[in-house]
Design a protein that fits this description.
mainly alpha
């Protein structure tokens, strides 16, 4: 395949989807429906109604990411609306990915600890009544195995993350140019009157 085609396919496709409107969305998380999903509600944080800025909420207890509540201006242009929607969609996608990833990590970690303790003939609690744990070397085995098993998933996530951020950056430039152009037109109108 020619290098131009590969570049066009990787860079232009997210932009096409972004311009296509509400019916088309960027890639959802891979494998999201195949296992138990984390709760969908991100945070109960709500900024004041009269706020004129984006607000960043407290960290979500499932994804550990801080949700952003985007300000919606009354005179929002179609490009600004598309940019805001794209940013919100990307944030929701990101929150859902990490909530599912963290849920999977916790489950697999507990199962790993349980299986290792049972193999040693130990219970889940030590003689002191505290929760039994494994040493750092044993846990390193789990972390290495978990990262190896999820390598492809993380690689796809990173690729999709870059595509989404490229599309958002493109729209930010487009909105900035539109704002600058409208200011220039207003300035020209004032000087001609």
């Amino acid at each position: 395949m020619a290098p131009g085609r590969a570049l066009r396919r990787t860079l232009v496709a997210p932009l096409r989807r972004a311009f296509a409107g509400r019916g088309r969305q960027l890639a959802p998380e891979r494998g999201a429906g195949s296992r138990e999903a984390a709760p969908g509600r991100v945070s109960r944080f709500c900024p004041p109604r009269k706020s004129c800025h984006d607000w960043i909420g407290p960290p979500d207890k499932y994804s550990n990411l801080r949700p952003v509540h985007f300000y919606i201006p009354e005179d929002e242009s179609p490009s600004e609306q598309k940019l805001r929607e794209l940013r919100q969609e990307t944030q929701d996608w990101n929150q859902q990915f990490w909530a599912n990833q963290n849920l999977t990590f916790r489950k697999e970690k507990e199962e790993f600890i349980r299986s290792r303790l049972q193999a040693k003939g130990l219970g889940l609690t030590a003689e002191t009544g505290q929760k039994a744990t494994l040493n750092a070397e044993e846990m390193a085995d789990f972390y290495k195995e978990f990262l190896s098993k999820n390598f492809q998933k993380h690689m796809h996530y990173n690729r999709d993350w870059y595509k989404r951020n490229f599309a958002i950056t493109f729209f930010m430039g487009k909105v900035a140019l539109e704002r600058m152009w409208s200011k220039l037109r207003l300035k020209q109108k004032k000087t001609s009157d």
